[in-house]
Structure to design on (133 residues):
């Protein structure tokens, strides 16, 4: 099953206190996956025509979030940083910031969605139960 077909969507607060054994994703990608033995959380965007949504930047090391409970899992949107230069100025854009922390470290993940203004630029969070553990 493709992540893009998931119907089970959750809020980021569902991730608080969870311990993950594997986290995958990188800048330029349109998917970040947090998983453990019993569940998987996937940040993704169902791409459509005339839009682009992907991870623009990751500050920190995603591996700092592995093996310890998440103490912070937060989503916010914001303005374009004043020092950021876009290759072109899209008609519409949305920044989405995800902040995570464990006792080992902090990680900020910044997504950028651009479009002609008629398509979604948001990030979805899918959930999948892997076993009955």
């Amino acid at each position: 099953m493709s992540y893009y077909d998931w119907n089970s969507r959750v809020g980021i607060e569902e991730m608080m206190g969870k311990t993950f054994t594997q986290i995958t994703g990188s800048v330029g990608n349109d998917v970040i996956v947090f998983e453990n033995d019993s569940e998987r959380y996937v940040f993704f965007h169902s791409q459509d025509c005339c839009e682009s949504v992907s991870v623009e930047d990751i500050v920190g090391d995603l591996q700092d979030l592995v093996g310890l409970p998440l103490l912070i899992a937060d989503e916010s949107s914001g303005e374009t940083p004043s020092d950021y230069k876009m290759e072109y100025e899209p008609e519409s854009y949305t920044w989405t910031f995800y902040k995570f922390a464990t006792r080992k470290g902090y990680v900020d993940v910044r997504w950028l969605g651009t479009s002609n203004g008629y398509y979604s630029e948001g990030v979805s969070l899918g959930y999948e139960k892997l076993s009955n553990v």
